[in-house]
Amino acid sequence: xxxxxxxxxxTLESIDIPRDEEGPVFEEPWQAQAFxxxxxxxxxxxxxxxEWAEIFGAEIATATSKGEGCGNNAYYLCxxxxxxxxxxxxxxxxxxxxxxxxxxxxxxxxxTEHGQPIELK
Amino acid sequence: MAHDHKHGDPLPETVLRVKSLESLLVExxxxxxxxxxxxxxxxENKVGPKNGAKVVARAWNDPDYKRRxxxxxxxxxxxxxxxxxxxxxMVAVENTDNVHNVVVCTLCSCYPWPVLGLPPVWxxxxxxxxxxxxxxxEVLKEFGTELPNSTEVRVWDSxxxxxxxxxxxxxxxxxxxxEEELAELVSRDSMIGVTEALSPNSAxxx
Lengths: 121, 206
Known about the structure:
The complex is a heterodimer of chains A (121) and B (206). Chain A has 121 residues and is an all-alpha fold. In chain A, 59% of the residues lie in helices and 0% in strands. The N and C termini of chain A lie far apart (46 Å). Chain B folds into two domains: 13-45, no CATH class; 49-204, Alpha-Beta Complex (Nitrile Hydratase, Chain A), CATH 3.90.330. Chain B has a two-stranded parallel ribbon.
């Protein structure tokens, strides 16, 4: 993306730059897990960081154009969406596998007693 | 046997999505749970701007080191053992009386992890990423950094291949400080270039 393209984006005019002190790196465990999965797959040679940056950058651009927030949560939602895309593009997992597994986890989480670890049966 | 009545609310959608990715990738042998945990621990507890501060403090104190750092930043930073993901090609840029450098990633959030850890939330935010390119002096002012008009502001766009580290100007009144004392003055924000290094007086007040 060139500076010229960015200069045309009016949605950014009204948003303040968020500030933070040197707080926690991740706000929720899922953010850390999505981050770690991506770095490990990159280190294992499943994709280059340039390939990742292109897909991740596109997710961020889409979210930005929709005026979605710019905090850590929005950032990692883009990260997660990009990770799902790249594992599918690289034929590591299919969209169907991910969707099916998600329903298994949902079922398991709904049918586990409070206080018990949630496991797939 | 799993019984079939519901006990509770399902986990949040994002958590289900990440658990699905992780469990499938582990089953396929593409990642290992222990390695994921170790990586998270590393970025939460071990890698951070204190690494970069050590590099800058040595550059202030040791002209030979600074020459090496400016000539081949990745190798000079590796002298400290600061290597690894997102540190493959690092470029140090030096602030002087005439030039002030500031770093951004306009595409996403490319950042020199081995020396600064993971980027702060504002670095990742769309307004910073777009505005610092268009109106760097205004953005610097919002961070409390006023530069004379005679100072040229250079904005560096980090990419997946090249990541920049700013060497802020050594503050006045720091002659005779040790490298450890100097490192205390090197804030994360000064190594991104949105602020200057702390002065010895203000740092003591913290």
